[in-house]
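User: Could you check the structure of this?
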Amino acid sequence: MVRLIKYFLIFMGFSILISCAEKNKDNLLLDAEGGNSENNEQSAEIEVTDNEVQAIEMEEIELTIEEKLASELIDVGDRVFFEYDESTISAENSETLNKQYQFLLKNPNISITITGHCDERGTREYNLALGERRASAVKNYIVSLGIEPSRITVISYGKEKPTVEGHNDWAWAQNRAAITYINN
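Assistant: Sure, the predicted C-alpha cells are below.
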C-alpha cells in the first residue's frame, strides 16, 4: 500500500510539472543564441507569412542612403545601349540621360562613374577605345545639360567586363552599353 501511495505521489508530481510547462510554453521564445527572448532587449518585429513566423531585424529593413540612391538611379535608368561599333547618343538614350540629369540635380552632393562596355567582338585595344568613346559621349551629354564635369568619372572596360555572358546577338546588344554608378 505504501508503494502504491509513492507511485501516486510521483505521478501527481509529474502531472503538475507537465501542466505548468504546458501553460508556460507559449511564453517561452528563444532568441538566435538559444536564450530566453524575454531577457533579450533587442527590438525585432515578427512577420507572419504562409503560417511561418520570421523575425525581421530593423537593420535589414532600413536601406542606407547609398542603397536608396543606387535604387533610385536604377529606377531612373542606369544604362544606355549602343548599336554595333557606335558611340552616338540615340533618342532613346537621351530620354534616359535626361532622367539621370534630373537625378543628379536632385542630389547635388553625389558624383558618378560612367563605365563604357563593348561586346566580345574586336580587339582588346579597339574595344577599350570604343568603350571610352561611349562613356565619354554619356558624360558629355550630361555635362551639356548643366552638370559639373568634375562630378563625373569615365572608365572603359571594353570587352573585359561583360554585363551578360553569351555569344549571340542578344548578349552582344546587352554588352554594348554605358553604365552609370554612384561613387561611394
